[in-house]
Amino acid sequence: MDYLLADKAIRDLNKRNLRTFDRLKQLKFDELNILGSVREVYDTAVRIAKKRYISIAYWSYVYAMMEAGLSEKDAKKAADEDIVEDWIIEMLDEDNETTLYKFNTEIERKKARLVEALAVAHDKVAEIDKALRYLTQMLAQYADEAVLVGTIHGYADAGVKKVVWVSQKDGKVCKECKDRDGNIYLVTEIPGLVHFRCRCQLEIAE
Questions:
Q1: Is there a domain that residue 101 lies in?
Q2: Would residue 198 count as lying in a domain?
Q3: Which domain covers residue 107, as residue numbers?
């Protein structure tokens, strides 16, 4: 699993969203303007994030297949033939054991929350900054989820049966990650990430 893909995507998303939310601060906040502007900001952020997630899953799939012994050419061919976008659509529409919500449902909740806040808050800039902070955290977590999704599909399609959970083994490892370290899982039964921005790895079991 290569979280560098996710980290790079999130840095790009953060820059884009910062500019978009900054533009939101310049608007006049009448009721109609608030609703349309907030919807546009979130819809743009989600559209770009989904494209990044598809790319992350694609390359995670390729790297997993290469780890299993396939050539880069064969791994890419397999990735091109699979339906990576469908994995991401499914990921964003199902309950997530790390975030404890569905991505699409939570985005709608965040939109409504910011609209309500901007309608009544005295410090509208502070509300926009808070909303951006929460969105940033959410998008970052699902970038990591895309790494896991692509990796699992890659291992499965390469014929890998079992994987080992490997923690970072540093001072920041939480108890649950430490407890999972070295555990062997069937590829069909790999548990979800333990917590936000978890950096545990999966390796092919010998």
A1: yes
A2: no
A3: 4-159
Distance between CA 127 and CA 84 in Å, rounded?
36
190 lies in a domain?
A: no
140 neighbors 6 (Cβ within 8 angstroms): yes
The whole-angstrom distance between residue 40's C-alpha and the CA centroid of its chain comes to: 20
pTM for the whole structure: 0.93
Instruction: Classify 83 in phi/psi space as left (phi over 0), alpha (psi -120 to 50) or beta.
Output: beta
For residue 195, give the DSSP letter.
S
What is the end-to-end Cα distance of the chain in Å, rounded? 17
Helix runs in the chain, H state only: 4-25, 31-67, 72-81, 84-93, 103-120, 124-157, 175-180
* φ/ψ of residue 52, rounded to 5: -65, -40
Q: What is the pLDDT of residues 68-119, one digit of tens each?
A: 999 999 999 999 988 899 999 999 999 998 999 999 999 999 999 999 999 8
Which of 100-104, 170-174, 193-197, 201-205 bottoms out in mean pLDDT, i.e. has the lowest?
170-174
pLDDT for position 31: 60
Number of domains in the chain: 1
CA dist., res. 101 & res. 94, Å (int): 8
SS3 label, residue 163: strand
- 41 inside domain: yes
